[in-house]
């Protein structure tokens, strides 16, 4: 019995000695996990620091670019202001300078048109015979049009035989569609329209008629085209109208061709009504 007791005690005594090797790996795993977490935190800190540095660098670059842009804009505004008479700029802010420049350019445009009218009158007086006057003297303001959508002049028509054949419909009749220059032949006016964003520039050269300009402006407003600036110059029996237009949001005329066609219809209506009135007067007499 004593020996059995000793064996039992020896077995129970061996259990505590065998347990530590089973729990020994746990501290090593915890240490490895702690070192891995520390490494990840370091990498995250490095990435965050790098992102902060990149964001700061981008911000400083943007500030420098914006500073240079404002400096250049102020220099240009100063030059623009120096080119205008002082009466056109009431304040020194950007809006006043640009608005004054617009008015100044419009007045210069009016002056150029007036000088062209005087030149045409002088040429007409010097060359009373129509055969001695070139097309520029016979019809004033032709040089003010570059690519008109409608034209009364042969200057924009095809000059070569091949181009003339293209303008013919194949049956010996001239086509009513666009010529090779992109201009449609018109019996009432030269019309040129250009558009930049929501602003349009309109030039009309036609025969002088009573209340014609008033009806053009009213027709444009009916199409939701607001008139911002207007210059009118006459030379002999011809009149040149230059208008700056604001295309309203609800305007249905979305292209230069649409605006030119609308203006051409207005002038055709004026021409037709004038002819009817003339016939009525002749019938009464």
From TrEMBL:
Residues 16-47, 164-183 are annotated as: Disordered. Residues 57-108 form the BHLH domain. The keyword Transport does not apply. It comes from the Eukaryota. Its main location: nucleus. One of its GO terms (cellular component) is nucleus. This is BHLH domain-containing protein. The lineage of its organism: Eukaryota, Viridiplantae, Streptophyta, Embryophyta, Tracheophyta.
């Amino acid at each position: 019995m004593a020996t059995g007791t000793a064996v039992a005690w020896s077995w129970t005594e061996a259990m505590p000695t065998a347990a530590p090797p089973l729990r020994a790996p746990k501290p090593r795993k915890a240490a490895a996990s702690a070192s891995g977490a520390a490494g990840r935190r370091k990498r995250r800190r490095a990435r965050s620091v790098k992102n902060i540095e990149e964001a700061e660098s981008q911000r400083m670059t943007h500030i420098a670019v914006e500073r240079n842009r404002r400096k250049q804009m102020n220099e240009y505004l100063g030059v623009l202001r120096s080119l205008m008479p002082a009466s056109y700029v009431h304040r020194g802010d950007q809006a006043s300078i640009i608005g004054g420049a617009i008015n100044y350019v419009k007045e210069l445009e009016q002056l150029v048109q007036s000088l062209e009218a005087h030149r045409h009158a002088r040429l007409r007086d010097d060359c009373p015979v129509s055969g001695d006057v070139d097309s520029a003297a016979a019809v004033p303001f032709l040089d003010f049009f570059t690519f008109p959508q409608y034209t009364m002049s042969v200057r924009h028509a095809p000059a070569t035989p091949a181009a003339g054949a293209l303008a013919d419909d194949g049956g010996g009749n001239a086509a009513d569609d666009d010529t090779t220059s992109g201009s449609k032949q018109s019996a009432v006016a030269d019309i040129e329209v250009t558009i930049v964003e929501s602003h349009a520039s309109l030039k009309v050269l036609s025969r002088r008629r009573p209340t014609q300009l008033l009806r053009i402006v009213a027709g444009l407003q009916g199409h939701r085209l607001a008139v911002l600036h207007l210059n009118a110059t006459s030379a002999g029996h011809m009149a040149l109208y230059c208008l700056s237009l604001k295309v309203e949001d609800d305007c249905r005329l979305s292209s230069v061709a649409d605006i030119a066609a609308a203006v051409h219809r207005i002038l055709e209506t004026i021409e037709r009504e004038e002819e009817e009135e003339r016939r009525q007067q002749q019938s009464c007499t």
